[in-house]
Amino acid sequence: MRNISDIIEGYLKGVIEVSERDYIEIKRNEVAEKFQCVPSQINYVINTRFTADRGYLVESKRGGGGYIRIKRIRHHTKSDVLSDIIERLEHGASQSMAEDIVFRLLNEEIISKREAKLILSASDRTTLLLPLPTRDDVRARILIAMLFTLKYQSSI
Amino acid sequence: MRNISDIIEGYLKGVIEVSERDYIEIKRNEVAEKFQCVPSQINYVINTRFTADRGYLVESKRGGGGYIRIKRIRHHTKSDVLSDIIERLEHGASQSMAEDIVFRLLNEEIISKREAKLILSASDRTTLLLPLPTRDDVRARILIAMLFTLKYQSSI
DNA sequence: ATAATTAAGTCAAATATAGTCAAAGTCAAT
DNA sequence: ATTGACTTTGACTATATTTGACTTAATTAT
After folding, report:
1. Chain C nucleotides reached by a protein CB under 7 Å
2. Do the chains contact at A3 and B64, CB–CB below 8 Å?
3. DSSP notation for A125-141
4. Among A12, B54, B69, B97, who pairs with B93 as Cys (CB 3.0-4.6 Å)?
5. Is A29 exposed, middle or buried (0-12, 13-18, 19+ CB in 10 A)?
């Protein structure tokens, strides 16, 4: 039996998928009602699953006519996706950030499953085995170096 | 009368056997309950019987809706070459060692050119930016981790 | 303007899982 | 009887999810 957060995540992604535009607007209370949960659960889902690292941008408005808008960040080229990620890596990278990023790259078909596994294994905390905050800095440099390689790859 | 660990091992393998997919998801507490043992016994069974060396890959999630997922993996055909290299990496790796290894893997067609570049960029001294001898240890661990994932490729 | 109403946001406690580690127990081979 | 490998157990830790009380912001009504 799956948890409700995963179900709501799947639902929202499905709605984005079939949407004409690349964003959707939801009413927090309606979604909470639909899934029989408290409204703040929707915030939880958004904060843990629709992050910038995973390629989403969220905006909202309170009060009458309020909404939560979830936008899938679309770049024109793969190179742009990589630049975007590299930029956000400049200030260190936790393991979960690395995981989100790799999963996103896989999703956008910028890397293969094998490459995803290579990157994840290289940036795993049990691999680096360094004390914080050094570990997060080294991880960030490793990720940046690899993504740079992907970005400026001479075509074979 | 066999011990409980062997019985649980047999049970889990049976479940994998009859499963449609090549992986299963269990709830640690449920299995512990079924066999009347403490939950950590399940970890013991998994750590001793469902290791990568025996051809399994285990993932898990804590919290509500948590699970333990056990997957079957298959060995890469070039597994022996990789084992060989991994063994020789146990005592640290200089950058030139890393380069030699990557070229050998490329030559033996175990990795692609793109993968070669990824591995080299991750293990470069300007990426790691750590003082010796830490740097060579971290490089070795990174290489080992990456080669390990190549060796045990999930069949999914 | 001000108050009332309608939304969304925050945060921490409660709950639900799984992981770690070391002490204690078991058993077969000296 | 002793040793050593393997197993069992449970206290403690780590992490993810769920829930709800309280806060903040925007709009609407007076």
Report:
1. 5-12, 15-22
2. yes
3. HHHH---TTHHHHHHHH
4. B97
5. exposed
Q: Which residue is nearest to nucleotide C18 (CA to C1')?
A: B62
Q: Note whether A36 and A27 are within 8 A (CB).
A: no
Provide the 3-class DSSP secondary structure of residue A72: strand
- Strand bridging mode A67-72 / B23-26: unpaired
Q: Which residue of A has its CA nearest to B140?
A: A127
Give the rounded distance of the alpha carbon of A132 from its chain centre.
23
Select from A2, A115, A144 the Cβ nearest to the Cβ of B115: A115
Q: Length of chain B, please?
A: 156
> pLDDT tens track of chain B, all 156 residues?
589 999 999 999 999 999 988 899 999 999 999 999 999 999 999 999 999 989 999 999 999 999 999 999 887 778 889 988 998 898 889 999 999 999 999 999 999 999 999 999 999 999 999 999 999 999 999 999 999 999 987 544
Helix B95-107 vs helix B79-89: angle between axes, to the nearest 10 degrees? 170
Judge contact between A85 and A101, C-beta under 8 A. yes
Return d(Cα A20, Cα A117) in angstroms, integer.
Answer: 33
What confidence tens digit (pLDDT) does each residue in A8-40 have? 999 999 999 999 998 999 999 999 999 999 999
Nearest CB to A130: which of B117, B119, B138?
B138
Strand D: which bases are under 7 Å from protein Cβ? 6-11, 14-21, 24-28
- Distance between CA atoms of residues B7 and B68, nearest Å: 18
